[in-house]
Amino acid sequence: MTDTQAPAVRTDNTERATPKRETHIKMAARDVNVFYGTSHAIRDVSIDVDMENVTAFIGPSGCGKSTFLRTLNRMNDTIPIARVTGDITLDGEDIYSPDMDVVQLRARVGMVFQKPNPFPKSIYENVAYGPRIHGLAPAKRDLDGIVESALKRAGLWEEVKDRLDDSGTALSGGQQQRLCIARAIAVDPEVILMDEPCSALDPIATAKIEELIHALRGKYAIVIVTHNMQQAARVSQKTAFFHLGHLVEYGETSEIFTNPREERTKDYITGRYG
Amino acid sequence: MNNPPAPDAGAPRRPTDWRGTAMQRRIRRRYAAERRFRLIGLGAVVLSAGFLAFLLITMLSNGIAGFTRTEVTLPIDFRAAQLDVTPQQLESRGADLALAGAGLEELVERSATAAFGAHGPDVISPHAWTGVRDALKDDPSLLNRKAAISVPVSQDLKSALDGAGKPEMQAIAAKLKQHDMIGSSFDFGFLMSADSTDPTDVGIWGAVKGSLFTMLVTLAIAFPIGVLSAVYLEEYARKNRWTDLIEVSINNLAAVPSIIFGLLGLAVFLSFMNLPRSASLVGGLTLALMIMPVIVIASRNAIKAVPPSIRDAALGVGASKVQVIFHHVLPLALPGILTGTIIGMARALGETAPLLMIGMRAFIAQPPEGLTDPATVLPVQIFLWSDQISRGFVERTSAAIIVLLLFLLAMNALAIYLRNRFETRW
Known about the structure:
Chain A has helices spanning 13-16, 65-71, 102-108, 123-133, 140-153, 157-160, 173-186, 203-216, 229-235, 253-258, 263-269, and strands at 25-36, 39-50, 54-58, 82-90, 93-94, 109-112, 191-195, 221-225, 238-243, 246-252. Chain A is α/β, with parallel strands linked by helices.
């Protein structure tokens, strides 16, 4: 790691990014560090995620944006050598405290992955799985309702309503990804984390997902990791630029893309490296 | 842009001569190598298929005779004999005892002497009278008339019919053939009775039942323990020196010669735990120890093959670890686990050595009724019969081998079916 001087923009971004209207901060990270064994993947990252805006994480490959995303619902717990320090709160509750039930946390902070990963079960079962294990639907009728509304919100209902018993893996890539979004929505989360949700999709499917993100904005706090800067510009209102494990700059998307304060941000978004 | 420049970038390269003789030769050599390799592969396949065909043909040609029994038509005059039994007795439960008490066996021997001469009793099987007994039970009206009943022939006559054995028997055999009194039929007794000292009377059912009981115990012990160990090792155990050690031990256990497991079973189950000797319970436990490593290894591989994206997906909607395992990982790994288990079971079904160590080689003339009854199993039965000097056992041995092979074939077919049927694509 050559980058030893800590970037100036770490904690003061909150005041800088203070938007004009009142926002409700959903998740807040303070001085978060992530270690994989001896390697230091995330360095002193502090960031707020709010309810009203879509937050995009951008940065070159290996900069730690996906790693950081996975700390927000403790998916890093599954990696034995990963270690997280610092505070991350959801509605003011420390998600790494022993009182926090990680299973409930992941229901409240849903996740959509890079590669569409529907269960090799029916479309219905894919969406119904979450509500069922959390006991959200006592009767079959309630479950049907949840499945239908989740699929409708994910914009997939019209395409699959006649074949809910078909396997989820038989859908096209874009449909599979929307099915995964429906699956995440079905447990009624508060935050949805999306880890490069369009990287395996063609442009048309990507456009559909982006529309969907627009439609979901405001109902859920949405954080999206993307390699595609146009996509970040299109779907997000706030953008965070990560580089070598540091949060270099965080602010309004329009601001970051037109008038970045940091030299490195500017270099990255103009394609100088990455 | 950051590629280092080639060391001799300045010198112009001569254009490659794709049609030159050196190039042509290289191409020819390449094709020749390919042909050679294909021929060697084909040769290997043909050779192994040939061995298999030889085995099957030998077994079938010997074994088919083992499934049939040679019969001779024996005329018996029941009316003249005046057996001391009533038709009512024949209908009742005590019929066997009544007929034995009434001297049916002697009657059959007398009839044989009358029909075939002084050597008559040697012509028919010593158990022939039980066939007559069953015929009487089926049709009590026989008591009042003369009847010709097909009874199994003795081993001596059977040899004589094949052109071997004692000269006096050969003479009788020739005469019987002339009068067309020799027949053969499918031997249901072979499929329904147990071991015996007389090859015309042996059956495979005792061994089949013993094998079934043994396999049942093996499956009931080895499958849950093996699969749960695999789940624990794959999903819960931390990777450290201890788990490495366990992994190496399991792989080594899978390669330990089976007779060692027999000694282990002898020491633990018989000497220490005092379980009954020769019982299918002990055999099953011993074989379970033997195939457990196989199941653990197969299950671990199947679990490892479940893509991490499925685990992530389940964890991502808030499934707990146990839910991830039981709702997603195990169902997806099940075809692999079952295939491994069936292959392990097939190995256990064909295993002889460890069962000899725990006393399952005893002569057992009664099919086992329960797990703790003395029993034998198919491969041990084959081993025991192949040791017999009497000629009749050669055919019986082959017939038993065919039965064993059919079982193995069925199990392997099941494994293939399961693999294809439940193979999931993601």
